[in-house]
Protein: Amino acid racemase
Amino acid sequence: MALLTLHRTKLKENFEFLKELFDSQKISWGVVSKLLCGNRMYLQELINLGVREIHDSRISNLAMVKKIKPSVQTVYIKPVSKRNVGKMVEFADVSLNSELNTIHWISEEAVLQKKKHKIIIMVETGDLREGVMGEQLVEFYSQIFQLPNIEVIGLGTNLNCLNGVMPSTDKLIQLSLYKQIIELKFNKKIPWVSAGTSVTIPLMLTHQLPLGINHFRVGETLYFGLDLFEEKLIEGMQGDVFVLHTEIVEMQEKPMLPVGNLANNPQGETAEIDTELYGQSSFRAILDIGLLDVDPKYLIPKDQGIEILGASSDMIIINLGKNLQNYKVGDSLTFDLKYMGALGLLNSDYVDKKVIS
Structure:
């Protein structure tokens, strides 16, 4: 069985880098844990770092956080369905919202549970996922700020999550202005302007973040150390907190081209034939992991001489050329991961998980 490892020391280095960055600009932040898919061992690692606020898009994952440490502030970060409002209010202290009816249901449930539920109103800033349109925001707020057991603690936005619209200084100034307008009109204090996710961090690093932005929700940069503007490692951060370890279960020298009549494979793909490769062979290996666990396009071989040829549900096929490294059956091959690759692996029950120091 393949193995996914989390490197405790590297995670801590990334956390401390971000903590120092946010503290230096007096910005509060929470860690997005949805990548961890509710894995108790990995959630415990976050909490051991001193994380006091955890964000997730799955209620069951927030329930696990509360089970580990009830004092952690939990934030539900996607619109909640009507049938899950009760569970959400039970396990989330805060939620991101953009629908009036939903907030009414949350208010009713919070009254029943005798809880004060905090909300961040999400504002549309161009990426066209969730969010109230800016021209409707004042009216929207006027209909919810007096609801029982509801406390509006922030305005927020998401960028780059659907259409790839990147954050900019202008867009974030606009968000800050919305906060000022609401505070002046209703004489109500809104503590947070939640600028978004890891994709906004490069604006901090280049001193382009407006002063009004004072809250972040960070996942990908914590786990992968990436500047998402330039898709490169941030100096001082670690990019391989997560590493995939696979085992070679077959090693054979085989023709480089398939033989026979070609049709679509189960993934709907048809092999492309390079006629110059007829008569040539190479060493091919099969790894003990497949599409059920991860899409190979999100894997980055540590050994740059490895070529990923394709995958079926339970196997990945790689090309080792002349196998100058002298790999053999039973050897381990390791891969760095892109975010979506780690997400698939963490969501798979067929991949072992471990913490290393």
Observations:
- The two ends are 21 Å apart (CA to CA).
- The domain at 8-232 is CATH 3.20.20.10 (TIM Barrel).
- The CA atoms of residues 31 and 54 lie 5 Å apart.
- DSSP finds ten helices and 18 strands in the chain.
